[in-house]
Every structure is written in structure tokens, then in C-alpha cells.
Amino acid sequence: MLVTLEGLDGSGKTTVWEALQERYPDAVFTREPTNSWYGDAVYRSIEDDDADPLAELFLYTADHADHLSRVIEPALERGGLVISDRYSDSRFAYQGATLEAADGHGLADPLEYVVDIHRPFSIEPDLTIYLDLDPETAAARAGTTNKFERAEYLASVRDNYERLLERDPDRFVRVDATQSPEAVREAVTDALAAAVDESH
Ligand SMILES: Nc1ncnc2c1ncn2[C@@H]1O[C@H](COP(=O)(O)OP(=O)(O)O)[C@@H](O)[C@H]1O
Ligand SMILES: Cc1cn([C@H]2C[C@H](O)[C@@H](COP(=O)(O)OP(=O)(O)O)O2)c(=O)[nH]c1=O
């Protein structure tokens, strides 16, 4: 079973992901960008304010392809629970927004385009927990350290997440990330426990 955590920078994904490790000690905990050299390339691009948006999309997608074959697919084949801090929806929402800001880079609908390039090879999560937070709080919590963490940009990323929730309501569970860390953790744990129960 594949479970992903999504949300804006600073929404509390990593805090929750760490708490879940105590709760599910046998699960495989992973993240995107990964810790491979593809992930290193992604982080180089994040630091480059002039990175080409399409080139950046393909770097993230290369990291995802490697993540699938090296980590996700083997773990799912073993029948395990896999919990990923960010996954494809981050690309749909963030690179969709970056491409949109670059006048669509000649694409009629950047978000749809990013979804489409994943379709032939990617694996859809069984459950995606979306930590919902307003862009201002997200930027303040994240510390606005890179180009993706600015409130204005995060507002367009959030609009894209809303589109994704609308098109796929059965896969997503929305959690109000303005709550205390304890309340967020409890809501996430409840959603995950319900999904794990249902899969048995
Ligand atoms: N529910 C919460 N309320 C207030 N602050 C939080 C909450 N969850 C996390 N934080 C804090 O916000 C910052 C970003 O959290 P983090 O888990 O790293 O988010 P993300 O992985 O989504 O970027 C950290 O300083 C963390 O301690
Ligand atoms: C996985 C992924 C991350 N990102 C962005 C979100 C973050 O700003 C940045 C690094 O991700 P991450 O290290 O998860 O940041 P955070 O813990 O602050 O949420 O990369 C994308 O734009 N596309 C993607 O596909």
C-alpha cells in the first residue's frame, strides 16, 4: 500500500512523517526529492533562480522514475506499507505552477501536461494525505529560504492542489494543518489507520 503526504512547504509533512515512523516501524519511509544523485541534481536546480522550468520538471521526474524502480516498486512487491513525504502530486502542483508562471511554456494546461507525462510509468498512491495550510503561514513556517517558498508562488501551488483534490476526491484526505502538531498527527494517524484497515 502506497501512502503519500502532500502540502505546501511548511505544512508539517516532515513532522508528521517522523511521528509515523514510531507508529509504523515496519513501513518503508521515503521522500521526494530523494537522497540519490538525481535528488542532488534536483536540489541544485532548486538553488538556481534561473533554472529552466521544463528542465527542472524533467529533473524532478527523473528522480521520481529512479525512486519508483529502486525503492517504491520493490517495497510494494514485498507487500509492504510505503509512506512517502511528497510524491507525484508535488510535481503536478509545483511544476504546474512554475510552468504557468512562465506563460505556460507553450502548454495549454501545464498541470494536465505534468499529470500526462507520469501516466505511462508512475504508480498512483492508494491514499494521499493533504496537509492544508494558507500560503502566508506556510511561507512563514518554511522560512522563505528558496524560490518555491514565497507566499505568492505558494498560493498558485495551493490552487493546483485544490484542482487535484477536486479531480480525485476518493484518493485524498484533507487535514487542517493550522491545528496543533498533536491534532494534525492524530488526524493523519486516524486517516492512515482507516485506510490500512480497509486494505485488509
Ligand atoms: N501543526 C503545526 N503547527 C505549528 N508549527 C508546526 C506544525 N507542524 C510543523 N510545524 C513547524 O513548522 C516548520 C515546518 O514543518 P515541517 O514538518 O518541516 O514542514 P514541511 O515538511 O511540510 O515543510 C517546522 O519548524 C515545524 O516545527
Ligand atoms: C518532490 C517535489 C518537490 N518540489 C519542491 C517543494 C519544496 O519547495 C522543494 C524541496 O522539497 P522538500 O525538501 O520536501 O521541502 P519541504 O520539506 O520544505 O516541503 O522542492 C517540487 O517543486 N516538485 C516536486 O516534485
TrEMBL record:
<feature type="binding site">
    <location>
        <begin position="7"/>
        <end position="14"/>
    </location>
    <ligand>
        <name>ATP</name>
    </ligand>
</feature>
<dbReference type="Pfam" id="PF02223">
    <property type="entry name" value="Thymidylate_kin"/>
</dbReference>
<feature type="domain" description="Thymidylate kinase-like">
    <location>
        <begin position="5"/>
        <end position="187"/>
    </location>
</feature>
<comment type="similarity">
    <text>Belongs to the thymidylate kinase family.</text>
</comment>
<dbReference type="GO" id="GO:0006235">
    <property type="term" value="P:dTTP biosynthetic process"/>
</dbReference>
<protein>
    <recommendedName>
        <fullName>Probable thymidylate kinase</fullName>
        <ecNumber>2.7.4.9</ecNumber>
    </recommendedName>
</protein>
<keyword id="KW-0067">ATP-binding</keyword>
<keyword id="KW-0418">Kinase</keyword>
<dbReference type="InterPro" id="IPR018094">
    <property type="entry name" value="Thymidylate_kinase"/>
</dbReference>
<dbReference type="InterPro" id="IPR027417">
    <property type="entry name" value="P-loop_NTPase"/>
</dbReference>
<keyword id="KW-0547">Nucleotide-binding</keyword>
<keyword id="KW-0545">Nucleotide biosynthesis</keyword>
<keyword id="KW-0808">Transferase</keyword>
<dbReference type="GO" id="GO:0004798">
    <property type="term" value="F:dTMP kinase activity"/>
</dbReference>
<dbReference type="InterPro" id="IPR039430">
    <property type="entry name" value="Thymidylate_kin-like_dom"/>
</dbReference>
<dbReference type="GO" id="GO:0005524">
    <property type="term" value="F:ATP binding"/>
</dbReference>
